[in-house]
């Protein structure tokens, strides 16, 4: 059976009455297991007392968390200001990477220079 046919069977005929009876039994057992609280004058004050008791246990954790977040924010601001005010010393190589490598290895490349080779041949 596909889903449409099974849904039709649930709600048609004696099967529908059986499911309705079982649903009523389920609701009845729920009412027995979870009775409605008795209404009284102290219902809301007692409810708020329970809510506030739960919040008090989390208050210490909340205070520590807020303090840590504040400290991290302050440290981030201070480090940002310090890094913005820090001026880097001038680099001896103001150019491309290739130029920096060539300047660093000039002494290694001297024997390969054309002028040097022509002087040695004479």
Q: How many helices does DSSP assign?
A: 6
Mean pLDDT: 76
Shape field: elongated
Distance between the termini: 103 Å
Largest sheet data:
none
Proportion of residues in helical segments: over 70%
Q: How many domains would you count in the coordinates?
A: 3
Measured on Cα atoms, how large is the radius of gyration?
A: 42 Å
- Reading the helices and strands in chain order gives HHHHHH
Secondary structure: number of strands: 0
pLDDT < 50 stretches: none
- The SS-based structural class is mainly alpha
Oligomer: single chain
Task: Name the beta content range.
Answer: under 5%
Describe the structure.
It is built from six helices and no strands. The chain has 122 residues and is an all-alpha fold. It has three domains: 1-37; 59-88; 90-122, no CATH class.
The gist of it:
The protein is mainly alpha-helical and 122 residues long.
Salient structural properties:
122 residues, mainly alpha, 3 domains, elongated
Topology, element by element:
Layout: H1 3-11, H2 13-33, H3 43-85, H4 97-104, H5 106-109, H6 114-121
């Amino acid at each position: 059976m596909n889903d449409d046919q099974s849904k039709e069977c649930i709600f048609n005929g004696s099967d529908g009455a059986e499911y309705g009876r079982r649903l009523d039994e389920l609701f009845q057992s729920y009412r027995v297991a979870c009775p409605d609280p008795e209404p009284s004058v102290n219902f809301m004050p007692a409810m708020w007392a329970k809510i506030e008791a739960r919040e008090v246990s989390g208050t210490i954790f909340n205070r520590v968390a807020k303090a840590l977040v504040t400290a991290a924010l302050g440290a981030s601001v201070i480090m940002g200001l310090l890094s913005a005010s820090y001026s880097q010393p001038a680099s001896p190589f103001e150019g491309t990477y290739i130029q920096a490598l060539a300047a660093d290895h000039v002494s290694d490349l001297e024997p390969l220079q054309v002028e040097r080779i022509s002087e040695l041949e004479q």
